[in-house]
Amino acid sequence: MNYEWFQDDNQIKLRFEIKNTRSDNLDIQVADVVVKVNVLDKKFAKTIDLLAPVLEGNIKYGADVLEVTLIKVQPGKWPQLSPSLSKEELIQRRKDAFLRKDQEIQAQKKLREDLKQQFDQHATKEQIKVDDRERDLIKREREQQRSDAVSDLYDQVGQDSGFEQNQVVQQEANEDQIEERLGGFEGFESYRVRIGGEAKAVPTYI
Q: Which of 15, 41, 161, 202 is most buried when burial is the number of CB atoms within 10 A of its CB?
């Protein structure tokens, strides 16, 4: 796999010529001092050892060219792209680099999980507060409805009692008036006389 590289004080650019493939067939792995490019449909790969640590930048593929941009951790020009090490040293260096990459990925995963757990716990607590407020509101509304119903019931009972008392008082007053009127007519007698062929009751007083 042919490639070329370019640099400035802040970046390294790797450009690979890969013909007749698609971007979803490209697997690019960037560790701090290693770049590995896998072309899945062609079953070949290229590993490049870097002189100093980098961070992954932009990656794009088009017109049979894959371009990988890397950000230098320490700005400055490199005298060469790769270090001058033995094969065994390079192999161990790659293993260490990908181990650090894996640890970084796991740390980020754990951080996301912790943040999600904290968010879920916070959301749960807030939901409990909302539920408690709603329950308190419903409870107060029910208590108010019960209080209003009891008050209405007492008012109705009071009105009915007053109505019955008024009836009794009115009845007693009517009876008193009747007795008073009848008392004025003590010794009242009546006898019938025939007036114009009709018998009439005529009162007499003793």
A: 15
